[in-house]
Structure formats: structure tokens, C-alpha cells
């Protein structure tokens, strides 16, 4: 996974310069009189927006249409995050720059690792074995960070976000808890749709372009084989492509899944060689501009994922 590691001293200096100069491009993003919340990417932004409502001003650092694995913040992003009351990040190794940001920001911002409490998967060699969740110590790039792709995980992540809101702004506890209950009902329905919809499918193996679906597979009884690894732009080796092509033929796989925010070239080439179809399976790492305009959100995209899985596995 190409997640750049910033030197702590260098990032702290960059953060200090941004704070002293006031030159951050997002300086107007924060609003007085509201709980200002900064999130690192779309799934957390979705949770925070649903729970925060009108009492909160939620700012997402990553722009629409940008894939989060290789994104790194500019000084204006760090400036915005350092001035918020609450900073929410996924953790589990997704945001390679966060540890150094936390070192530079000190204790001025309440920070929450939203994936905390989820049994994490060790994705080395695609084994999908669980590893201990130990706070911020996720330097091992073989930990699978894609917790949010499972609705079961999102339920726990939503609870972590709600607790953070209540702690940061106890005066509006009731409003946050009411919205959290509504969100939990929606995510709970989605969880049941996945459990029921995948319970009796004829096949349980999925071939995906990007190793992002381990938590979904663990929670709903599927098995993933990935063309690329944890990072969607990793280049597969020739022997990997041959192995996957053989797996597709030997196991009667009829569909290879690709995603929208990265190139589908390798997945479609492999599908052509294996004479199988392709479909989108969205890891919901962010919205495209078209999805944003259409009013799509985490739940609608995951419902679409379920429909495609059912078609491919029938």
C-alpha cells in the first residue's frame, strides 16, 4: 500500500507553519457556534454527518472522486484539522500520515480512531486471519484497514462516532443519540439484507480487483480472491494473474468485480482472457461526482453491491 510516511519532525514543522501563517486554504471551513468535526474520508464523513445534524459542522478532508489510499494532506488540510474540536480517522493503517499529525497537534483536538474495537484482519497472503486491535500501533501494512465495507463494522464505527460527539458536545447529547438510533436502524436493516440476501447463494467465492472486501466476506460467509493487494493501484505479478485465471476456471466463477475510483484495466483484461463478465463492487472509499449529484450515500451504494453480489453468485 503506497501510504507515505511523514517524518514526525517535518510534519510537526509543517503544522506549526500552517498555524502561525494562517494560510490554510480551508480556514473558512470551520464554523463558530457549532461542533467542528474533521473526517479523513467518506465513510466516516457519512457517519459524522448523519449523527451530527444541524448541531455539527462536518468537514471531509478528501475531495469527491479521490481514492484515499495514496492521498496525503496539504498544509491547509492539517491547519483545518488542528483547529477542529473533533478529528475522526479510520485507523488500522489506512491513513499513513495520521500518527505524525497527532504528534504535531498535541492534545488540542479530541481524536478518535473510529475502527477501534473491530477485530482486525491480517491480510498478508490473503489469509484473512484476525489480529489484535492495539490502538495506534498499525505500522504493519498487512493489516486490512477496510473495516467500513461491512455493515456490521459500520454499526460499531457509528457507535464510536456517537460517543465522540457526546463527549465533545454533551449539551446536545439527546440530539446526537436520537440521530444515532435512526442511523443504527438504517444500518441494521442493511446488515440484515446482506445476511438474508447472501445466505442461500449458489457460490461463495468472489474475485475482486482490490483486496478490500475481507470484512464483508468474514461477516457474510464469502471468500475473496484479489487481483491486486490492499492498495488498489498495486501491480499484480504475472504469476498472480495466471493463478487467478486458473482459480476462475476451476471454480466456475462467472464474474470479476472492479471498482469505480481506480482503473479497471487489469480486471477487465483478466475477465476477457477467462471469458467471464465484470461488475462493479464498490468499496465505498468515496463518492464519484455522479454519485454525489444523484444523492447516493453509503447505504444506497452498499445495497447496489448486494444486488451485484446476488447476481454474480446465483
UniProtKB/TrEMBL annotation:
Q: Which domain of life is it from?
A: Bacteria
Which first-to-last residue range defines the signal peptide? 1-22
Q: Which Pfam families match?
A: ZnuA (PF01297)
- Which keywords are on file for this protein? Signal, Transport
User: One GO MF term, please?
Assistant: metal ion binding
Which Gene Ontology BP terms does the record give? cell adhesion; metal ion transport
Q: InterPro entries given for it?
A: AdhesinB, Bact_metal-bind_prot9, Lipoprotein_PsaA-like, ZnuA-like
Tell me where the transmembrane regions lie.
none
Q: What protein family is recorded? A: Belongs to the bacterial solute-binding protein 9 family.
User: What PANTHER family has UniProt attached to this entry?
Assistant: HIGH-AFFINITY ZINC UPTAKE SYSTEM PROTEIN ZNUA, HIGH-AFFINITY ZINC UPTAKE SYSTEM PROTEIN ZNUA-RELATED
Q: Which named protein is this?
A: Zinc ABC transporter substrate-binding protein
The lineage is:
Bacteria, Bacillati, Bacillota, Bacilli, Bacillales
Amino acid at each position: 500500500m503506497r501510504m507515505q510516511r511523514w517524518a514526525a519532525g517535518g510534519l510537526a514543522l509543517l503544522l506549526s507553519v500552517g498555524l502561525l501563517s494562517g494560510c490554510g486554504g480551508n480556514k473558512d471551513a470551520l464554523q463558530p457556534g457549532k461542533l467542528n468535526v474533521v473526517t479523513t474520508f467518506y465513510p466516516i464523513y457519512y457517519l459524522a454527518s448523519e449523527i451530527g445534524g444541524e448541531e455539527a459542522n462536518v468537514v471531509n478532508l478528501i475531495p469527491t472522486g479521490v481514492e484515499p489510499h495514496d492521498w496525503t494532506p496539504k498544509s491547509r488540510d492539517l491547519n483545518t484539522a488542528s483547529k477542529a474540536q473533533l478529528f475522526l480517522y479510520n485507523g488500522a493503517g489506512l491513513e499513513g500520515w495520521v500518527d505524525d499529525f497527532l504528534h504535531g497537534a498535541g492534545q488540542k483536538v479530541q481524536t478518535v480512531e473510529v475502527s477501534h474495537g473491530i477485530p482486525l484482519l491480517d491480510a498478508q497472503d490473503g489469509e484473512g486471519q484476525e489480529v489484535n486491535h492495539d490502538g495506534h500501533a498499525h505500522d504493519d501494512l498487512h493489516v486490512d484497514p477496510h473495516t467500513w465495507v461491512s455493515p456490521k463494522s459500520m454499526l460499531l464505527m457509528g457507535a464510536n462516532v456517537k460517543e465522540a460527539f457526546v463527549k465533545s458536545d454533551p449539551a446536545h447529547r439527546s440530539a446526537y443519540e436520537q440521530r444515532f438510533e435512526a442511523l443504527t436502524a438504517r444500518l441494521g436493516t442493511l446488515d440484515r439484507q446482506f445476511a438474508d440476501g447472501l445466505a442461500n447463494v449458489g457460490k461463495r467465492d468472489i474475485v475482486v480487483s482490490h483486496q478490500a472486501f475481507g470484512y464483508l466476506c468474514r461477516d457474510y460467509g464469502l471468500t475473496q480472491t484479489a487481483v491486486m493487494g490492499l492498495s488498489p493501484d498495486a501491480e499484480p505479478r504475472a504469476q498472480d494473474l495466471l493463478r487467478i485465471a486458473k482459480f476462475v476456471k476451476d471454480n466456475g466463477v462467472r464474474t470479476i468485480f472492479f471498482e469505480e475510483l481506480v482503473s479497471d484495466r487489469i480486471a477487465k483484461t483478466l475477465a476477457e482472457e477467462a471469458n467471464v463478465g465484470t461488475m462493479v463492487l464498490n468499496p465505498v472509499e468515496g463518492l464519484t461526482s455522479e454519485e454525489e449529484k444523484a444523492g447516493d450515500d453509503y447505504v444506497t451504494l452498499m445495497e447496489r453491491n448486494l444486488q451485484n453480489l446476488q447476481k454474480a453468485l446465483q
